Amino acid sequence: MTSESDIKIIGRKTDEKLKDNNDALEKTAQILLDEGLVKDSYIEAIKEREKAFPTALEFENYSIAIPHTDPYHVNSEAMVVNILEKSVKFEQMATEGLYTDVDIIVMLAIKNKEKQVPYLKALIETFQDKEKVNTLLESENNDIIEERFKNYLKESI
């Protein structure tokens, strides 16, 4: 597996109230688009894939979503860690019709499909650690979120 430094990590804290999960997906994907890391087609592709294959995971005191889509829509590998001020309902992974209030979106833009599973495993390992998640949720700004998340990811890869 390649090192975490091969992927650009972007930390964000979204203070605005998001209407729904589509709004959350659009605004998070827009971060990648603004950086030139994904193609214009990425935003619609991520919303369509989330409808077909929900990505929310519920943990003890919080929930996360890990939306991702086909490599075709990606220019450069990246991850956005978006801490939501107000949680947003997402359908849970592998549970049709069950929803959870998502607090953190980790949006993946992966070009090499072989990296996807190791990254997903590292993310799940990171998010199983309540202390790490609480530290992320309490982070005050984008730089702190980014730095903490890079360190957590490094430990898990």
From TrEMBL:
Residues 1-152 form the PTS EIIA type-2 domain. InterPro entries: PTrfase/Anion_transptr, PTS_EIIA_type-2_dom, PTS_SugarTrans_NitroReg. Signal peptide: none annotated. Keywords: Sugar transport, Transport. This is PTS sugar transporter subunit IIA.
